[in-house]
Amino acid sequence: MNFPHAAVVGLGFMGRTHIQSLRRLGVQIGGILGSDREKSERFGHQLGISRVYADFNEILADPAIGVVHLCTPNHLHYPLAKSALQAGKHVICEKPLALNTTESLELARLADQHNLVAAVNYNLRFYPLVQEARARIQAGEIGEARLFHGGYLQDWLFLPSDWNWRLEPEQGGELRVVSDIGTHWMDMASWLTGLQITAVMADLSTFLPYRRKPLHAVETFAGKLAADDQAEQTPIHTEDTACILLAFSNGARGALTLSQISAGRKNYFWWEISGSRASLRWDQENPNQLWVGQRDQPNQIVIKDPALMHPEARPFADFPGGHAEGYPDTFVQLFRQVYCAVRDNAIRSAAFPSFADGHRQIALCSAIQQSAREKRWVELTD
Ligand SMILES: NC(=O)c1ccc[n+]([C@@H]2O[C@H](COP(=O)([O-])OP(=O)(O)OC[C@H]3O[C@@H](n4cnc5c(N)ncnc54)[C@H](O)[C@@H]3O)[C@@H](O)[C@H]2O)c1
């Protein structure tokens, strides 16, 4: 049986990435929707996609579409995901799932009521060696997790002239680095270890209280190449950096550093976990190596080679050893989970990040915001 057809909404950085990945998987793009009809038609023409929808309702009414991909700015995730599920469409929503816990809880409950895919694109779980790390942790190879630390550092919002919709709370939400990149890290920490983050202590800082907002829209990561033409001085209320202490459900402790203003750090997502038997370390800018730290024998560098990986992790490597896999491949792996689950009617058992996982991240964001405001540890209630 064939895969269901996809509609992609939002045609920026993520929209393009979703389309490329769907095509690699063999999924047909039934149509696209951008914010501007003329631009979307040009975009469709470049990519050989003939159907450009006039609005979201046209997608919902199109019986040819099985899965809707939401690649818009954050504030649109909740209304679009809600109406897509209500119309009986499967949804892959970009992270963060929503702007607050009222929205994300409603979406998680709605997803629970339907036999539909409701996935949040925490794609970084799908690096082959991240899957390998999880398999090793589940097999008890590092023992009991004690310390989980790391960070996610970028520099694309380093200058006061760097601008993006994420800086505007109405579109991005009241938090920026925490919800934009921090939730990727926290999602991975829980998913790798099987442990929940139960309490947080956070310090948030805004080092650039004013930025120059261009009078035209700037696509993600495009600011560095854009001419600094007409712009207006704009106050910024979202954080440039975050330092967060974490407590995990087994008593393990953690520390997370986040920044979008760290010169030279492009997409530096890394973590290290210290267990009672061994340690593991991984870094997204060098994703085909996993460090194993040991006390009584030499440390190891495990390379990405499906032939040498745990059987549970092996299906997530599409290329043999010595053939690097990276960021774009993680989308293909996640989408494969979704489209196979829909095709095979195996949604409940499929291995994709769910709306419940997405809601958990929004609850963490809310606790982090409260902790920073009240300068104290905040426990998560459920
Ligand atoms: N999973 C990841 O690794 C990852 C990476 C980057 C971004 N994201 C997420 O993807 C989403 C999009 O981010 P981006 O970086 O692609 O932003 P972007 O600005 O590059 O693209 C967003 C696009 O949405 C369009 N848009 C705005 N309103 C719309 C509407 N009503 N209908 C249709 N299109 C509309 C904009 O014109 C723009 O082209 C965000 O939620 C972001 O957090 C995820």
What's the gist of this structure?
This protein has 382 residues and is α/β, with parallel strands linked by helices.
Q: How would you describe this protein?
A:
This protein is of the alpha/beta class. It has two domains: 5-123, 3-Layer(aba) Sandwich (Rossmann fold), CATH 3.40.50; 128-325, Dihydrodipicolinate Reductase, domain 2, CATH 3.30.360.10. The protein is built from ten helices and 16 strands. The chain has helices spanning 13-25, 37-47, 56-60, 77-86, 101-113, 128-138, 169-172, 177-193, 327-343, 355-374, and strands at residues 5-9, 29-33, 65-70, 90-93, 118-120, 145-153, 197-205, 210-214, 231-235, 241-248, 253-259, 268-275, 279-283, 289-293, 300-303, 378-379. Strands 15-14-13-12-6-11-10-7-16 form a nine-stranded mixed β-sheet. It has a five-stranded parallel β-sheet with strand order 2-1-3-4-5, with helices on both faces. Strand 1, helix 1 (13-25) and strand 2 form a beta-alpha-beta unit. Helix 1 (13-25) packs across helix 9 (327-343), helix 4 packs parallel to helix 5 (101-113) and helix 5 runs antiparallel to helix 10. The radius of gyration is 21 Å and the shape is globular. Bound molecules: nicotinamide-adenine-dinucleotide (NAD). Residues 9-14, 33-35, 71-74, 76, 94-95, 121, 123, 165, 180, 219-220 line the site of nicotinamide-adenine-dinucleotide.
